[in-house]
User: Fold these one by one.
Assistant:
Number 1:
Amino acid sequence: MTVGRLSVVVTRRLPEATEARMAELFDVTLREDNKPMTRAEVVQAIKTADVLVPTLSDQIDAALIAQAGDRLKLIANYGAGIDHIDVKAARQHGIMVSNTPGVSADDTADMTMALILSVARRIPEGLAVMRTGNWDGWAPTALLGGRVSGRRLGILGMGRIGQAVARRAAAFGLEINYHNRNRLRSEIEDELGATYWESLDQMVSRMDIISVNCPHTPSTFHLINERRLKLMNPDAVIVNTSRGEVIDEHALTRALRSGEIAGAGLDVYEHGDALNPRLRELQNVVLLPHMGSATFEGRVEMGEKVLVNIKTFDDGHRPPDQVIPDLP
């Protein structure tokens, strides 16, 4: 707990309600535009602030944390994913890290289903035909897609989002399969109607649709690589609403160009907003600008969690969403 009002620096524009509440509670420095802070600006902020509120666009690595002032004691991340923060380095410097888990699971699962439907039923291609004025009327063989009902869905990562995807997919008549670091309890499997695959290779080779819903960690980097893409059926599709680094983007681009797989739906990319230009050229891929959690309600709820984490810390307690690093 600090003496006086807590000094808080926010790196991006947040919902108005969140910013207004922060201004009431803390001595807050808000971002005036929606551009990410430069690294130099973040370094300057952490030299004097008690709390930093970053987002996934801010790389809070060990070198940056080493430049923090003595006052910085909490990094209250706006978002659930924390792979852009070196949590171990923060701990070594006596800085707590918190995040906003459990807020965007349903929103991201909705977007996962939207991508599955968009790729399978060629919705963006239909939209392009209409917008360019090239529609000549209904035809029996025009823009034929694939039926979703009855297809085999393989979910990679069965946490909150993966389970939310499973519930939605089951309602569309998809057969639910999953691969996860740890197998779910039998009662959860029964509720979801989900079949566990211990071998990711075997699951990938037998699915019609792969949904990537696992976090990015050293063990999941390029989990979907060239070898595993070659295991997929030629009429299979893959969607990713999790983290871009889980898929080898260059290998995916080659597989899509060569017809080794039928299509892909992507909301996240291996190198952030530095999109592989060859992906833009492909008709069999649906590209979205990281919209998975982009709902008004979700963004406000994330802000509420940030506020609770900071206020709890200011009151002398551990934030409810404190992230504890995995120690060797």
Number 2:
Amino acid sequence: MTSSPVVTPTPPPSVPSQLPAKLYALIFSLLPIAALTWVWSLWSINVPKWDDHTLKALLLGMEKATSLPEAIQHIIKQHNEHRIAYDRVIAWLDYSLFGKLSYTRLMAYGDLSLLALVALFGVYLARYTQRWYLFLPPVVLFIINLANWENLFWAMSAVQNFAIVIWSMWAFYTLSHRPSPWLAIGLAAVATLISGNGILLWPVGAAMLFVQHRHKHMVIWLGAGALVLFLYFFDYVQPSVAPSKHDDWLKIGSGLLAFLGAAADALPFYNTYWLSAGLGTLLVGFWLYVFVKVLPDFRKPAGWSARDTFAAGAVAFAFGTAAVVVWNRVGWGESAIITSRYRIYSLTLLALTYCYWLSAFYKKSTWQAALGGLVVAGAFWWSAFIMNQHDAYVLRRFFVTSQFNWTYRSPGPVSNMDSVTSRLIDNAPAFYDSALSTIYGPATGPLFPIDSVFRNPDNYLIQVSAAGLESAGVPSLRHPDQGVWIQMHSPKRTYLINTMPLRRRNWRVPLGLLPIYNVREPFIVPIPLTELDADTYSINALVVAADGSTQLRPTQKTLTVLPYTLKEPVKNW
């Protein structure tokens, strides 16, 4: 009897380790977050801007409230066309926890919420792609970058403009992917209390449920929406705002495209409005193709897939927001359309387009799509990081001069900050704290050259000579306060005025082949007619060095400011 040969089992094929791929995803996802966190720590400053001041009124109102209904009324009270209940709740919690309101903490709350948007795309990629983490770095690069500079460094803007997108996107995702609409209804209700843009969620959500043939849920959704909108408009008063001109349909059409493609404003080229319109055209073309492709799925028993429904809802929300913004602001110029505070819509649309393309169309190498996305998104991120530093410096210096000018309103360096404001907030530390003796002392340095001082219908204008800029230096990443500031002095009071040299827009700048500022080119400092009290002022140049030392240099120029009453219609931004 012969024995059977021993059969050696074939070992299973070895599975390549996923550790290198996961390390790649982790490193390239954390790098842009770490870089933005670093510059935020250098440039952010605890100073309110415009709408931020209304939060002080909230705190006073909440302190005086004697009942829960009265407190709720302070929370949901109308602000322009919005309710901003979300902003107010966060501000009140911050004040209650820390004893004083901090605008930098409000910025941080809003900025950190961008991680929730990244997480949403991570959930989407994990559901619809293989090795999803490889595709996360491009999403992070699109979402968390300096193109958002205005929101990143402005407290209420960070909380509101980021939050409305994040809560809306999560509402669309849960509505399209969960069998019950109730969680999405809650998210949509919060979004509506964040911003008036949240009203768009209700018709868009109803359309999403319709294409999924979820008619019962659509009725529930519409009922909930009707209740939320009734409460929203219960005591609503139409705000008095500047009317926008609607007589140029080419401007309206190009404005819609430019709003959707406003991310292109971070590129190192001139005429970024039309670059933005070009990018918007590409995005609109892609999503029109997707719509035509998935439209026949409506005839299927279950209607559109959850993936297509979510994407369509998110895109419709972006398009609807573009229509509202452009219709209301097209008359105020191109910059009002592609402003940084709304750029999160364009950036989110870019991230969504990349993720949807991966899930619906791309069938080739995972690494090709991952690395290709990294190169494109990384180049855009770097361009925004370099080019939008200028804008972040301008905003920071606006904060610094605003705080100085409302703090020091008497002939000498004595704070005029009222006791109520001092109890609610702290003044931010600024370079001028250690330079008050210089600012209020005689101008003793060498003559600082100013070419001319003149006036146009909106501003007083000071033209700074290129020779002065060369000798004074310019702001830099580590030293955003370095350079020239204008000091305006009269016997009654002293002002600080921000100045910034002209930014180069050239492809060589992000490559490090050209500095962003041309110190050989003169530039103009505008001062709004309503900025200064009527008086005659001597004009001096306050030069701040990289080490924080200061020097006050005379210009031998004066400016006589006449009484002026603001005549233009009110803006609500």
Number 3:
Amino acid sequence: KTPTVSATLPAVSNPGVGFRSHTVANLGATLTDDGGQLPDVAFHYWESGTTATNTVPAGMREEETFIWPVGGLASGLTYEYRVSAANGAGTAWSGVSSFSMLPVNATIYVSSSGDNTDASTWATAYSDPAVAFASAESGDTIRLAGETFAAAPGFALSYVYLVDAKSNLRVEGGYQAGGATPGSRDPAKWPTILMRSSGSASVLRIQNSPDIVVEGVTITGGSYIQGGGVYLSGATQSAWLENCIITNNLLPAAGNTTDGGAGVFLASGTAVVTNCLVLGNKIVSSGLDNYYGRGGGVRVSGGTMTIRSSTIANNVAQGKNKNTAAPYNRGADGGGIYSRETAAKTHLENCTVVSNDFNEATAIGVRYAAGTLSITNSIVWGHAAGDLSNLPVDGSGHLLNVGRSLFNDAAMDGVAGCISADPLFRNAAAMDFTLQDGRHGAAGVSPAIDSGLRLPWMKGAVDLAGGKRLQSGAVDMGAYEAAGPRATLLLIR
């Protein structure tokens, strides 16, 4: 005979809901007594105020506390649920718990000290930015605590953090993340740092996502063959990088000619980079095959990129081309910025591009290969092989689409408002690229002061130090305005 198993009614309770997003919630259950026979456990949930119930079987369970993810829920709705456990003695039921999903146009908080539940406060914040990026929906705002978030890419992935097929999403860094929400914010005092901890990957990839704003975030430690720091792609892509620091990202040798943009790589779509520092990013090529370094700071391979009020400095584009005998020729192109394809459009406005590339003899600031390149109100200085390289010229030999800018080219001095003279930075060796203005101990007055052109976007805009861009009738060239009270200058050493 088959032995008879004597069962008693199991005991089950409802500890409530843990993680939840717009559409997914982790329902909890605790089986405290299996009744001597493993029960079949199921979750039953319904929208509050209705009677239509959905049942999700969870299988036979031992005595334990566990969670069960349920998808297909709706943003902003409140649900209720309870748990059943059934064995030969009958069915036991837990009490009822209610939970609400993230609302439409939600504000999502991210902090390593959060409890990873509904992300509506710093206390309940998601602990991983990757979860926030994946869970967010169009129209949301993600607020990141001022701390370092370091992670490795997932298996076979080429990025650490991904924004994919979202729209109108805003990502903000630099929050103190204590107590009230949102609380105090100062990206200089509480920097939010996104970085790669291991593996080969871009730190941040944004693709197929219109109207994405990333503001007040430092992106560092990336290592990938295109866009070690930030990779942007997609025909519908439009991204704004504002008040960000993109620094110390690496692009390793890969043996092909598509490498570039150790800091930022734009493959397609549009991007606007405003009030950003792109510093110390590096392409390293060390083999004997056809390695090329193209755009240590920025590479535009397609789409349209506008860079405003930003500094691009001390980036490196190192390359080697194979020869039959040593010494080997270096194949570096554009330590600062490289504009490559016919479809690429690159616009520099009030930028400071200084001292890029890997040695004095081959240093290039901005390298043009194809597409459209315009430079206005900008300073490009400190590159022995050419501040501007290979740009198209008109019938008189003057550079096309370059105006009101300062760079080392005697033939352009006085043409279209351009200047070929030392810009007189306050202390370039210490990465201080503000302009000498004859005050505060400055030895001279920079020729870039009051030599720029007023542009429509300047109304209400600030320079890279946070000072007003429009302070008098004229504007300065470069990322910084010299006149007027100055805000605290953020320097990277």
Number 4:
Amino acid sequence: MFILNALFNFKGAFSIYNRYKVMFLFGIRNTLIISLSATIFGLVIGLFFASLKLITIQKHDRILSRLFKYGLKILANVYIEVFRGTPMMVQSMFLYYGLRPTLGWSPWQAALIIVSVNTGAYMAEIIRAGIQSLDDGQYEAARSIGMHHALAMVIIILPQAIKNSFPAIGNEFVVNIKDTSVLNVIGVSELFFQSLAVAGNVFRFTETFLVTAVIYLILTLTVTSILRIIEKRLDTPAGFIGASSSFSGAFKVFKKGGAT
């Protein structure tokens, strides 16, 4: 009986997908756009706050400089803890319905901001761990040829930290594909929102959300497979040859510029 019921559900699910294919595809497109865009923006935000969190306070720093650095580190810690420690659905409700009267943003704008800021908090910790996993000698070597802190971070440290953190960064993209489902609470037409609309039309919730579950599974498995291919490519010596060449070129250019 259970098997017959399952087969009936699959048959009904296939029928619903064929009938409402356009709505499902529209939701898939929006889910992927938001997920990918928010992952990229979140990476940029994460780089910024990871840099703030790793600011070093030297003994010879002046009092005002120390206070300023402490303030930046506290700001980074508060941002990371708040957005990692609260559900994205709560963040969505607060940032959209709470701030919309003041900022007047659309659901799409709010969605990108919400997912990007949430992702940025996780990316900050990922990048921080990636930076701290590198050998200190690389940073010291960069400083020894005259590079200041910011230039050494941008040219030498961050590219390698991102490479080492790529599996975790890719995982955040996969997580975002699933987490965008909470954006239905602010009216964003992602996959789950479209599924709710379909289910409301046909009043067959089991079959409709079976379709939704299969689509999410296909999306995550496909993206994961692509990320693994890229990861293997990066793990090979040739996979990072472009970055290695840019490092070498950077050192040559910097030396030609007069640094000793």
